[in-house]
Amino acid sequence: MFQLPSPLQKIENEWTKKFDIQLYIKRDDLIHAAVSGNKWRKLKYNLTQAKYENKNTILTFGGAYSNHITATAKACELLGFNSIGIIRGEAYFPLNKSLQFAADCGMQLLYLDREHYRNKNISPLLEQIETNEAAIFIVPEGGANEYAIQGCTEIVDEINQQLMENYSTKNFDFICCASGTGTTIAGISMNLRADQKAIGFSVLKHDTLKQEILSRIPNLKDNFSMQAAHFGGYAKTTPALLQFIRDFYKTNNIILDYVYTGKMMYAFFDMLSKGFFPSKSTIVVVHTGGVMNANLFEE
Ligand SMILES: *Cc1c(COP(=O)(O)O)cnc(C)c1O
């Protein structure tokens, strides 16, 4: 059902050669077409816990284009859970493709005004939720909780094993991924050795994400940094970004989305080309998925 471990693939280009860098991409986008990337990592132990608590309905939150909503809807369909998606804002019909997909998976979609959504206060919706409260397991927006972090630590375990078995390489020095809530980078950073560093590329237009993560997760090591990679704001694009994504596809046959992984990869190669990484470094970039919802290639 899920392709795990996800493949680890080597990338070479003019910059890796110029700076003598070993670069690998962790293809979490290939875990599942719809439950892709870090969304499965984050759901895995949430669903395990729900099952353990005998709860058969997953309730979660997201915006109208949320990868987390589509992934949760599909994972629940595949694994036999009912699902309820609380969507920020008003309902628009016809549904956009992401929400239509979620509905087709059997997810009950309910809309919450921004004020209540901010506090995740679902009281205006209780009448519409027919499921017995005792059967509901709540996963926070973006899947950002301790079970999600636990799932994301496994990215590092898989990479370590694959570097050893497939590339006879013992260690990596840097690991990079796109960050929204920062849950994925938190799980990764928790599982690093002392000499390894993680870099998150924040796609949101604020510079407090690292502080937020550190205060939310007290036992986290301070072994990660945050780079701004928002290109003007969440889901905003620039012609240069879109061109980069097209070129990356032509060269590597790997699709990046323009909300997360395209921005991360662009900003990463920008750092690489400016000599940020010491030569002989081994670097892993994580493809966190999210391609299905990016319709860039449907032109
Ligand atoms: C949701 C998502 C992210 C953000 O992950 P966080 O754990 O919230 O930081 C990154 N990349 C893709 C493709 C995503 O869908």
Record the SSE blueprint.
Elements: E1 8-11, H1 14-18, E2 22-27, H2 38-52, E3 57-62, H3 67-79, E4 82-88, H4 97-104, E5 108-112, H5 114-118, E6 136-139, H6 146-167, E7 174-179, H7 183-190, E8 197-202, H8 209-216, E9 224-228, H9 239-252, H10 261-273, E10 282-287
Parallel strand pairs: 2-10, 3-4, 3-6, 4-5, 7-8, 7-10, 8-9
Antiparallel strand pairs: 1-2
Helix pairs in contact: 2-3, 2-6, 3-4, 6-7
Q: Tags for this entry?
A:
10 helices; Rossmann fold; 299 residues; alpha/beta; binds pyridoxal-5'-phosphate
How would you describe what is shown here?
Helices cover 37% and strands 18% of the residues. The protein is α/β, with parallel strands linked by helices. The chain has two domains: 8-37 and 145-287, Rossmann fold, CATH 3.40.50; 57-130, Rossmann fold (3-Layer(aba) Sandwich). Bound molecules: pyridoxal-5'-phosphate (PLP). Residues 37-39, 67-68, 142, 178-184, 257, 260-261, 288-290 line the site of pyridoxal-5'-phosphate.
